Amino acid sequence: MSEDRRLDVLRAIVEDYVATREPVGSRALVERHALGVSPATIRNDMAALEDAGLIVQPHTSAGRVPTDKGYRMFVDRLATIKPLSAPERRAIETFLEDAADLDDVVDRSVRLLAQLTHQVAVVQYPSLRRTALRHVELVPIGDRHLLVVIITDHGRVEQRTIEAPDALDVATVARLRVRLNTAAAGRRLAELGTALSDLADDFAPADGPLVRGVVDVVEDTLAQESEERVVLAGTANLVRGGGADFARTISPVLEALEEQVVLLRLLGEMAEDEAAVSVRIGRETQHEGLVETSFVTTGYGGFDGGGGERAAVARIGSVGPLRMDYPGTIASVRAVARYLSRILAG
To answer: Where is each Heat-inducible transcription repressor HrcA C-terminal domain found (predicted)?
Structure first.
């Protein structure tokens, strides 16, 4: 029973410290929380929590603040996630559904998440290494020019124009479109070479250059566009919402966030977590510039035809000070990821 009570005391300390940005004392816990025990018992529980390395006293005669270990236990023991309000859910849906294309969806998602959490939002672009080809459209534009439109299963659209060696035959272009999509639709970049290698054999020798030209432009376009990248929004929130103590350490945080390789490494590691929403706290980020921050991320992707969720192809998340609203941040990250997945799957 005392263990449960001490966890309640830790939860109260975390919540109060997040809300007030001030070290929390036993008197404040008695006044603000119905813990059902005497102040002396709370002081004993705080001493036990300090001995366990879950809280620390930053200054003599000051209250206690959570340590990285304390935040970790708080996050791991979260029983419920604060739900978003109905207006918040409608705002997310409306804002994202108006997006025109993938770039617009990513841009809106990262700005929206930064507004919801008042922290830095991070969205990883769906890499074409992990996405599949949904459709290739071939549109003749003139006698010898062909527009090749490449659409991935997560809404990414690339367009290229090629020049045919001879005048285009409409029937041949239509047949090539059908054969190309039959062979390639649903396949990932690494699989396309094998799937398309013999496509020219299905056409007359005179059509071979056109077929090979289209196959080459599809493969080359996907290879060129397969780099990993992330988009950030809300870096100013770190200064506005982190407090004076956090503002003093902001420079190394901003420098770390500017390094795409650092963010991509973290996102890749967090993708391996079994939890649906992954949290890295302080030194768990394994980067000196980020020891005063926490990362909350989850995967996004799409939904299959039966309504089940497919494996995530990229991640979305929030970065903020250790003293963040973990339940609220987790709820916001998860909600935006779900809407993002639905839109890209549509």
So the answer is: 103-330
- 233/238: higher pLDDT: 233
CA–CA gap between residue 8 and residue 97 (Å, rounded): 41
Residue 295 backbone dihedrals phi, psi, to 5 degrees? -115, 135
Q: Which domains does the chain have, with CATH numbers?
A: 3-77 (1.10.10.10), 86-127+228-345 (3.30.450.40), 129-225 (3.30.390.60)
User: In the structure encoding, which two tokens stand for residue 241, read together?
Assistant: 């919402």
Give the 3-state secondary structure of 144-174: CEEEEEEEECCCCEEEEEEECCCCCCHHHHH
Q: pLDDT tens for residues 132-175?
A: 788 899 999 989 999 999 887 766 778 899 999 889 999 999 99
Residue with tokens 């987790």: 330
**Residues 6+ positions from 83 with CB-CB distance below 8 Å:** 331
Q: Which amino acid is at 227?
A: E
For the entire predicted model, the pTM comes to 0.76
Decide if 111 contacts 233 (C-beta within 8 A): yes
> In terms of C-beta density within 10 A (0-12 exposed, 13-18 middle, 19 or more buried), how is residue 30 classed?
middle
